[in-house]
Write a structure and sequence with these properties.
Helix content is 42%, strand content 18%. With 311 residues, it is α/β, with parallel strands linked by helices. Strands 1, 2, 3, 4, 5, 6, 7, 8 and 9 form a nine-stranded mixed beta sheet that branches.
Length: 311
């Protein structure tokens, strides 16, 4: 078993993947094994990776079928790789040189006070353009969220953490693989955060440790919308009828996520009751639903009132 594993998912990333690998090689702490799985690239990504890792013992290419998406790719790598701690890597980012060191140091600090509990440590990111010019010093603030809003009731709605900023321990890895249907989980990072909040410890580092590229090929990009643009968009959606449908989809997403959390072991009784109440919330009337969301602390960093009006 490896102690520290980095899981790097690639797909048609020939333009940036070498820079990502180079940033791993520059880490101030390099006692990790990097496992790479390509998800069926049709460009030169795999050739670049094979050439780069040749002769490097701590970089290994995983060989299993394409998973058709980043979420399932990361879940499959979690299943395949045997380690005590896991970090996730995206092909088009660049890691700050002491990222691994800071994540491990914080994990060590957190685990001193607990035993055998699931733990996730996560950081912020710089938002950068294709050439790594900084657009924003905080990805989390850029998308209108708060790094410290990490209770389960908040994470079901607004997840502040990207998977590529995380380190998780083995206990959380084991819990995170307990689900019934991955199609009901939006992304692996929100799932991991929710599982950690439901069963263990969620600990933020309020510092950017990644250069997160914002470009058209991102699977999940950073979005910053002005108030004017939001009003215009919502106005158009109201006219077309999309507004109500979109709000309903937003609400149903967290209900489906709560259903999957019911399959996770070691969830305490009060948390399990909250999840059950959320799963069944559609059986309540409009005002009862609004009261449940308010009482449960299910709110957003911004626009919570509007969210509750449309649940």
């Amino acid at each position: 078993m490896d102690k520290y594993a980095v899981l790097l998912a690639t797909y048609n990333g020939e333009k940036y993947v070498k820079e990502m690998l180079d940033s791993l090689e520059r880490q101030t702490r390099n006692d990790f094994v990097c496992y790479i799985h390509d998800d069926g690239s049709t460009d030169g990504t795999l050739d670049i990776v094979k050439k780069w890792i040749k002769g490097k013992k701590n970089y290994k290419l995983l060989d299993f079928e394409s998973e058709k998406g980043a979420k399932n790719n990361f879940f499959s790598m979690l299943k395949e790789v045997d380690a005590s701690y896991y970090m996730f890597a995206d092909q088009d980012d660049v890691w700050v040189e002491n990222k691994v060191e800071k994540l491990i140091d914080r994990m060590d600090t957190v685990e001193k006070d607990i035993q055998y509990m699931p733990v996730v440590v996560y950081s912020d990111m710089y938002v950068v353009d294709d050439e790594l010019n900084v657009i924003a010093d905080s990805f989390i603030k850029f998308i209108g969220r708060n790094i410290y809003r990490n209770k389960l009731s908040q994470l079901l709605i607004d997840n502040p953490a990207a998977g590529c900023t995380m380190i998780i321990n083995r206990a959380l890895r084991d819990r995170a693989l307990e689900y019934n249907d991955s199609d009901e989980i939006p992304m692996h990072d929100q799932w991991i955060m929710c599982v950690a909040a439901a069963t263990g410890v969620v600990n933020p580092i309020d510092e950017p440790l990644i250069y997160y590229r914002q470009h058209t090929d991102n699977v999940m990009g950073a979005e910053a919308e002005s108030k004017k643009d939001k009003i215009v968009r919502n106005g158009k959606d109201i006219i077309t009828g999309e507004f109500a449908r979109n709000k309903r989809k937003f609400h149903l997403k967290e209900v489906r996520l709560a259903k999957q959390l019911m399959y996770v072991s070691d969830v305490d009784d009060s948390t399990r009751q909250f999840l059950m109440d959320l799963v069944l919330v559609n059986n309540k009337g409009k005002f009862e639903r609004m009261a449940f969301y308010r009482k449960s602390g299910m709110d957003r960093e911004k626009h919570s009132l509007w969210m509750r009006l449309w649940v």
